[in-house]
Task: structure prediction
Amino acid sequence: MEPLSPLADAATLDGLATSAAPPLELVCPAGSLPALKAAVDNGASCVYLGLRDATNARNFAGLNFDEAAIANGIGYAHARGCKVFMALNTYPQAANPGLWREALDKAVDLGVDAVILADPGLMQYAATRHPQLRLHLSVQGSATNYDAINFYREQFGIVRAVLPRVLSLTQVQQVIDKTPVEIEVFGFGSLCVMVEGRCALSSYVTGESPNTHGVCSPAKAVRWQETPKGLESRLGGVLIDRYATGENAGYPTLCKGRFDVDDEENYYAIEEPTSLNTLELLPQLMKMGVRAIKIEGRQRSPAYVAQVTKVWREAIDQCRVAPHRYAPRTGWMASLDQVAEGQQHTLGAYHRPWK
Result:
């Protein structure tokens, strides 16, 4: 390559700065076949999905895929250059570990591009039984440092890790610098106040842990009731929130309820309803070497998937062409806030002003 002229324009420099790195992948949720198609049609690089059972961490009634739907979805995605990942990211139970192994075998037979795993035993099964299968470490695996991630690589051949949403950008960079494993981070969607994979809040009132039954706040434990004081939401009989007339009501989870504190004040004591939105951090994430941006929301509608995917596809493409001139458009932010929890957004743990 000839040396660059001192007068080379910024666009040329930007392009050269990003051309050597593999493209940043946009990994989008698919809770149904229409959602999968919405993601693919609007520019997803990859979609992730799960089976209709406890092997995945979004085991809600009416969501997820049977074998016929997965085969249909894989065909649709692959024909359009999009990859398909299967989430098998809950923990096999002693009474029936075979369910998880059968699901993994099924994923291979169906031709998924990768499986997303949390349990080391299932990783060992995959590495032994299907050595050519691409393995991703789920956020449910709770790996927050490079030693943990490198352990999973050395023992089971993990090639990508999804980081929990509790790390600052500095900490993400420290992980990337010390592991050859591809790093995927959450870019948009619901937040979690816990290190994913270590939360048992809902099990206290429902008897079912997200990591074993595949769902936080299972629908069968949710109750809505109109009362003289307003619309009440309950989880396992526990009052989670009370809404005034015209107030937007959110799905009841313990971490996002409003509670009386010291009998003096009623507020979101653990976490306010707000969504992570890292559009403004895209140039930094690309420069750091993040391999993929994950969009949360397999429990959301196809319209949500289409809207979020479209915005992020445009943003990633613009940032890749000219990272030094990139800035989130007002329209992008407004579009994402429309589908955000509480219609508001945050940078979450990525930005810690107290540090």
